[in-house]
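Can't paste images in this forum, so I'm doing it all in text. The chain is below; anyone willing to post the predicted C-alpha cells underneath?
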Amino acid sequence: MTSKTQQKAIVKNVISADSVVLRSAVSRPNQPPPERILALAYIEAPRFGSFKKPEGDEPYSLEARDFLRKLIVGKSVGFEVLYTTNSGREYGRLFTPESKDVAKILVENGWAKVSENARSRHSTPNPEDPNSVIVQELIEAQAISERKNSGIWSKKKSDLKRITTLDNEIISLLNQSKGKTLNATIEQVRDSTNFRVYLKHNKKWILVPVMLSGVKGPIVRVGIPGQEDLIEEFGIEAKIFVETRLIQRDVTITIESITDNNVIVGTVTHPAGNIAELLTANGFTRIIDWSAALVTGGAEKLRNAENVAKQKMLRIWKNYQPKAAKSSGSKFEAVVTRVVNANTIEVLDSTGKEREFQLSSVRPPKVSDPQLSGYADEAKEFLRKKLIGKKVIVKIDYKKPEQEGFPARDCATIKLENKNISVPLLERGLGYTIRHKRDDEDRSSEYDVLLAAEASGTEKKNGVHSGKVSQVAKYTDSSNNPARSKSLLPHFTRAGKLSATVDFVSQGSRFKLIVPRESSKINFVLAGIRCPRSGPGSPELYGAEAHRFSKLRIMQRDVMIEIKAADNTGAFIGNLYYNKTKNLAVDLLEAGLAQVHEYSVSQLSNANSYYAAENKAKTLKLGLWTNYVESAEDDDEESQKEATSNKNLSKPRAEFIDMVISEMTDSNNFFIQIAKPDVIANLETIMKELSISGKQPSGSLSKAPRVGELVSAKFPSDGIWYRGKVHKVVSPRECEVASLDYGNVEVISISDMKPLDPKLSSITPIAIQAKFAYLRSPVEGYEEDAFMYVRSLVEGKQLVANVEARSGSGTNQIMYLTLYDSDVKGAPVLEENSINCRILSEGFASVDKKDPASRRNPEGCAKLEQVVETAKSGRRGMWEYGDVLPEDDE
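Text version of the structure:
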C-alpha cells in the first residue's frame, strides 16, 4: 500500500544511513510524543552493527550514517510511507525542509546505492510508473558518484572505527584525558543527566557512558533487567527536553572525573550553551554537591540557575518554600589569637571582643582515630603558622545549633589576603568538606570552592586521602615532676637560647611551651617579675588584663627562651623573647601589668631594664600603678636602685605590726595574723558564720571542686569549719585544702566541704604568708631541731614584727619579717633582741645575702653575719662539725 499524502515529522535520530526514527511534532501531556521508524525505499546503505557488536559494521557504515545525521537530525521533514512489510517495518520517502529527496542526496554523495530489488523491478524505464521514474533518477545519481569515486565507491579504505568495549587501554586513555575537552556525539539519552556518547579520538569513535557533573534530574528507568521500572515526576519531560536538543548532536565533553564503574562525569557543551545550566534554569535538575565540586570553572552559574528556578517555582521546585533571608552585616575584620583545633579559631574583633568560630562546612580529621589523629595535628599546625597574629576577614555563614552536648557555634569563612584559608587546608588533605543535606542552606558561602579543593586533595592522594597513617607528634612533659625538672636544668641552661612554641597562656607570666629540639613540653615562668593572677578562684586586680596582654602577643607564636632556674612545681624560670627581640617580662612591666620580683630580678644581668620599665609605668600611672603616690614609695624606689647598683646606702625599713603566728610550715616559713581590731572582728564573724552553716545537714559538695576554688571545709585535725582554698585534687573524693585564715593545709573529704557563702568569700584572707628576713633555712639534718627551737620561741605568743620587705601583692604577697617579743623594751635592735638573731646565734639558720631584706639593708645583714660567725666558733646547732655550707653559699 502506498500513501500519496506527505506527512510532517521531526527526525529524532538516525539508525543507519537508510533508516531513521521520526518523532511527531505534536506533543502529549506527561507522555512522550509518538515515534516511528522509517526505512528509505529503493536504496540500501552500508549496514551499521548493534551497540554491542561493532564488528558487524560494514565499510563506510559510520561515515554514511554520520552524513545523514548531520543532514537531517532535529529538523522538520516531510515523509511518505510507500509500503509496510509483514513484520510491520515501514518503507518510504523522506524530504529535507527544502523538499529535496534524502535518498537521492545519499546516492549522489556515494553513501548509498540503489537496491537490487528496485533495479530488478524497474530496470526498464516507464514514464507512466512514478516508482520507475524515481528509480531511474537514483540509478543516474549512482553512476555519477561511482565515476567520482565518492563515498562507498572510494578506492581508499574506510578508516573510522567504532569501539564499544572499555578495555584497559581505553580506560587509560580516558584517565589521561581528565581535564581535557573532547569532541563527541550524543548517541542515547537515558534520562536528563545520563547519556551514551561517542567520543571522537584519532579516527576512533568510543562509546562511553556520561553523567552530567553538578546536577541530577528525575529518574527514568524502564525495561532494565532486574530493576523495577521507575519514572519520577517530570522525568519524561526532562528527557524529551534533552533529546530534542542533544541526541545525535555534535557537542564537546570536558572529562572531570571517572567513577569506579568507568562512567565519565563531565560537562556537556552544545554550541548553544551548557546543557546542565539550561536544565537547571528550567527546573528539571537540582545541584548535587559531590559532583558540583568537579564542574570546570566552578558551580556558581549552576547555583544561580537553580536559584532562578526556585524563585519561579519551576517543575521540581513547584512546592519550594524560600527560607527567611539571613541577616546581613556579618562580615568584619579581626586578628586571629588562637587556633583551638583543626577547624576552630579564636579572633579578636575591632571592639576588643574575643570570639570563637568554626570553619564553615569543614570537618577535621578525627583525633580519636589512630589512623587520622596525626593529620588533625598537622591541620592545626598549618592553621597556626598561617593565621596566628594575622588580620583576617571573617564572614559568618551560619550558626550550628547545640547538639550532643556541644554548645551552639558560629561558622564562618575565614579569608587571609582575600583567600579562603579552608581551600589550601582541604587541598592538602587535612580535612573534609561536610556533605550537607540536600535542602540544607546552612553551609559555606564558598561551598563549591571547598568541594573542588577537597576533590583536588583526593585526586592527588594528599593527607587523609593518601591511605597512610600519620603519627601524632609526641612530646615528653619535662615539668610533671620537680625532681626531673631539676635534673634537666643544667642541660637547658647550657643550651642558651632555645626556639619554642607557646602552646597555652595560663597566666600573664606562666605558659605551657613546646620545645621541638628537645621533644619536650615545659611549664615556663617569666623571671624577674610577679604578675597578678587571673582565672577562677581568687583573681587579682589586673590579672585578666595581664593574661590578655600576654595572650595577644605570644599565644601559639614561635618564641625564643633562656632558662635560668626551676621552681618547686617543676616549672622552668627564664626570659622569653617574641618578635625576635622583645622581652615579654619588660613589656608587662612597662604596661603596668606586673611588678619587679626583687629576688628573681637580682639573678638577671639586665635587671636595670626591669626597674626602668616599672618606673615608667609608675610615672604614667598605668595598670597596677593607677593610684600610685610617689612619696609613699620613695623608700622602695631608693632600695631598688641601691640594690641594682649594689651600693650600701639603704636604710632599714621601719614598719612595725602586732601579730601572731597561726601556722608554721618549717623553721623559716610561716603564716601570720595581724592583731588589728578589724582583723580580729572579721575572724570572729567568719568563724561564727561557718559554725552555723557547718551544722546544716545539707549542702555538701557532690564532686571534687576545682583547684583554686574557695570552699567551706571541716578540717579533720580539730573538726572545726574554716574558709579554705583547694590546692590539689588528691582523688575524686578528697582534696588538699589550705585554710585562708590560719594557713594550715590538710587533706579533706568532699563530704566535709560546702560551697563558701559569697559574703564570706569577699573578706580578705586573714592568714598572710611570711618568712624570717635575712635568714636561710638550716642544712639537711637540722631541719627538725630548728623547727622545734623556733616553735618554742613563737608558738602561742603575740609578737611584734618589722616588715623588712615584701614580694608579690594582694593575697599572694610574702612578708619578710624580723620578729620581736611583744615586751621588748625601747627601740628594737635587729642584731641584739630580735628572734631572727636568736635563731642565728643558736646555729639554726645562716644569713641569705640574696634575701630582699639583706639587699635592702646590707648594714644589718653584715651585723647578723657576725652573729653567725660567733655561732660557728661556738659550734652551735648546725655548726657543731664546723662550716657546713658550700663555698658558693657563703
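The two ends are 133 Å apart (CA to CA). Residues 718 and 746 are 11 Å apart (CA to CA).
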